[in-house]
Design brief:
CATH superfamily of the largest domain: ATPase, nucleotide binding domain
Strand content: 15-25%
Radius of gyration: 20 Å
Helix content: 25-40%
Strand order of the largest sheet: 3-2-1-4-8
Oligomer: single chain
Number of helices: 9
Number of domains: 2
Structural class: alpha/beta
Shape: globular
Distance between the termini: 24 Å
Length: 319
């Protein structure tokens, strides 16, 4: 069975998996990223991919697939723009091909995760599928009629940047006000906790340095019944439901799978949004889009990036 190296490049670390053609991960290697300059990130990539290729399980690997944040030119692997890394027109694919002298494919990380989840996870038996990766931000990917949508300039699937609170929302990293990502990501949940804090003057929920606050901590407090956390979670869930209902209106999928770190909330998250999504769904029968937690979790990016190698590009292989 063929093997490839599937790489998931994030803002704080990069993970490389040795992935078999059936989607099984045979080994994983991780490297922290402390410096987001292009040369430093390439060095981290070279280290983690090199370690994966040295592993005996990677023998005869046929290529490397990389899921990177940003808008990426598919044929060359040029990262045209990545706000996460503050990159513009950097030759990521070219640098890795020179280093490893083997085929290298580079695509947006959320689209790679969508390919992995569609091929081997919760979307496996669907034709119309959406994956949302909910973490620090919100990434996405859309499969319509069995085909992964790429777009005119490889930008299809940026679901996190449609505006749901354009007048009174939080400022998004992209510069707009009230993007879905700004309101309903892990970062959004933290912002909601600060926004409602004046109503809970005795709460100690936020009594720590802001850079040490985590959405998981707030979610767990909400599950435990903390009034401040519950109020923040309700506002977060309302915004998440609004964005999900919009996705249903945009593409009418059979399933929307929620992945990324925030999705570890599982049924607590689904139960918080399902009824409101149905209320907001108007142009198709209510309840006909299934909401689910993604099956591959944080492995989806590696699996999808490797699958891109096997298929010669970011394609589902279905039509």
């Amino acid at each position: 069975m063929r093997k490839a190296i599937g790489v998931d490049l994030g803002g704080s670390h990069v993970t490389a998996g040795i992935v078999a053609e059936d989607g099984a991960i045979l080994g994983q290697f991780e490297q922290d990223i402390e410096d987001r300059s292009f040369d430093a990130v390439v060095a981290a990539l070279e280290t983690v991919v090199g370690n994966a290729l040295k592993d005996g399980k990677a023998q005869d690997a046929i290529g490397i697939g990389v899921g990177s944040p940003g808008n990426i030119e598919p044929s060359s692997g040029m990262v045209l723009y990545s706000p996460n890394f503050l990159w513009t027109d950097v030759p990521l694919g070219e640098r890795l091909r020179k280093q490893f002298d083997m085929p290298v494919f580079v695509a947006n990380d959320a689209r790679c995760a969508t390919l992995g989840e569609y091929a081997f996870g919760s979307g496996k038996d669907t034709q119309d599928f959406v994956l949302l990766t909910i973490g620090t931000g919100i990434g996405g990917g859309i499969v319509s009629g069995g085909r992964l949508l790429i777009g005119n300039r490889a930008g299809a699937g940026e679901i996190g940047h449609h505006q749901i609170r354009p007048r009174d929302g939080f400022i998004c990293g992209c510069g707009k006000i009230g993007c879905f990502e700004a309101q309903a990501s892990g970062t959004g949940l933290i912002r909601h906790a600060f926004a409602v804090a004046p109503s809970f003057p005795r709460s100690n929920l936020l009594d720590r340095e802001r850079d040490k606050l985590g959405s998981k901590m707030i979610r767990r407090a909400a599950q435990a019944g903390d009034a401040h956390a519950v109020a923040a979670w309700k506002n977060f869930a309302a915004d998440l439901a609004l964005g999900l209902a919009n996705v249903i209106a945009f593409v009418n999928p059979e399933m929307i799978a929620l992945g990324g770190g925030v999705s570890t909330a599982g049924d607590f998250m689904l139960d918080s949004v399902r009824d409101r999504v149905d209320e907001l769904t108007t142009m198709v029968p209510k309840g006909t889009t299934k909401l689910a937690i993604a099956k591959l979790g944080n492995d989806a990016g590696q699996v999808g990036s490797a699958t891109m190698v096997f298929r010669g590009g970011l394609t589902t292989g279905r039509s």
